[in-house]
Design goal:
Layout lengths: L11 H7 L40 E3 L2 E4 L2 E4 L15 H8 L2 H13 L9 E5 L9 E3 L5 E6 L17 H12 L3 E9 L3 H10 L9 E5 L6 H9 L3 E7 L29 E3 L13
Parallel strand pairs: 6-7, 6-9, 7-8, 9-10
Antiparallel strand pairs: 1-2, 2-3, 4-5
Helix pairs in contact: 3-4
C-alpha cells in the first residue's frame, strides 16, 4: 500500500485553489479529519506519459486491441486457450467454501433475478467522503462484476502470470452465458493490455478475450475513475479484490480506520475479499 500523506485540515481548500490548472484528484474532506486527500497519487505516477487514449475500456479487435476505434497494439489477439471441460468435485467444493465462491454466488443471484425485480444497488458508494455504506443506484442494463488483479500494495506485473483452478474458470464462463459482464482492473498501464489478455487466456479466466479491461490510460488516471466510468454504463453489483482499497480509493487516505467501520457491512454484500490471482513472487513494473 502507498504511504499515506496526511495534511492538516486547515489550508486544504487554499491548496486546492493553488493547484487549479494542474492535474489533481478531488480532495475529499470528512468532518473530524477521518479522511484527507493529498491531490496526488504515487502509484499513478508509474503510468507512462505516452499512453494517451480516449475514455473507453480496452477491448480486443481483429487486429489487436483498440480504444474508441483506434488500434493500440498491432498483431492478432492471442489465440484462446482450450475451454475447460469440467472441474473436479474437490475443486468445486473448495471454491464453494472460498471467498470467490461467495463472490460468484452473489453475481449469479443477480443474474437470475426476474426481470421485474427492482434494480440492485451498485457496488460503488454514493458518497465516499461521508463514510456511509449507502450505495449508488444502478443504471439500467444487465449486471456486471469487477475483479481487481493488483496484488495488495503493488501493481500487477507487466508480463503477468495468473493462477486459477478450473472451477473458477467454469463459474465465470457460466456467468458470461447468463449475461453478466465481467471486467478486470489494474493500475498497470494500458500499454500492457496485450500481455494481460494473454495471461487471462492462458489461465482460462477469459479464454476467448471477451471481457472488459480497465487499465490506466494516461498519467494521473486513477482506478477509482475507471471503476466509476465502468459503473456508469453497467450495473456493477460486485467487486472482488484482496484489499479494501480495491473497492474505493478512500481507504488509501483514512487517518482513522475506525471511522470507516460502517463500510464493513458491505463485505460480503457487494464487496468481496479474495486471494490474489497472481503469484506473490511476481515483480511489478518500475
Amino acid at each position: 500500500m502507498r504511504p499515506r500523506r496526511l495534511l492538516p485540515t486547515a489550508g486544504i481548500l487554499a491548496m486546492a485553489a493553488t493547484l487549479s490548472g494542474c492535474v489533481v484528484a478531488a480532495i475529499p474532506v470528512v468532518a473530524g479529519g477521518a479522511l484527507l486527500r493529498t491531490g496526488t497519487d504515487g502509484q499513478n505516477a508509474k503510468v507512462r506519459a505516452e499512453n494517451l487514449f480516449e475514455d473507453r475500456p480496452v477491448r480486443p479487435t481483429a487486429n489487436g486491441f483498440a480504444a474508441d476505434g483506434e488500434t493500440m497494439f498491432a498483431g492478432p489477439a492471442p489465440a484462446p486457450a482450450a475451454k475447460p471441460e469440467f472441474a473436479s468435485r474437490m475443486l468445486r467444493a473448495d471454491l464453494e467454501n472460498s471467498a470467490f465462491g461467495d463472490f460468484l454466488a452473489f453475481a449469479e443471484k443477480a443474474a437470475i433475478a426476474p426481470a421485474d425485480t427492482p434494480a440492485p444497488a451498485s457496488a460503488l458508494l454514493a458518497d465516499p467522503t461521508s463514510l456511509s455504506a449507502e450505495r449508488k443506484a444502478c443504471p439500467p442494463g444487465p449486471p456486471a462484476i469487477l475483479i481487481d488483479l493488483d496484488p495488495a500494495g503493488r501493481l500487477l506485473a507487466a508480463e503477468p502470470v495468473l493462477e486459477a483452478d478450473m472451477a473458477l474458470a467454469e463459474r465465470l464462463e457460466a456467468l458470461r452465458r447468463s449475461g453478466v459482464e465481467i471486467a478486470w482492473i489494474s493500475g498497470q498501464s494500458a500499454a500492457h493490455a496485450g500481455a494481460l489478455r494473454e495471461a487471462l487466456s492462458s489461465s482460462a479466466l477469459d479464454p476467448e478475450g471477451r471481457d472488459t479491461l480497465l487499465l490506466m490510460r494516461y498519467p494521473g488516471d486513477r482506478k477509482q475513475t475507471r471503476r466509476e466510468d465502468f459503473a456508469s454504463t453497467a450495473c456493477l453489483v460486485a467487486i472482488a479484490g484482496d484489499e479494501r482499497e480495491d473497492f474505493d480509493e478512500l481507504f488509501d487516505y483514512l487517518v482513522n480506520p475506525e471511522a470507516a467501520l460502517g463500510l464493513e457491512l458491505l463485505i460480503g454484500d457487494g464487496w468481496f475479499i479474495v486471494p490474489p490471482l497472481s503469484p506473490s513472487d511476481q515483480r511489478p513494473t518500475p
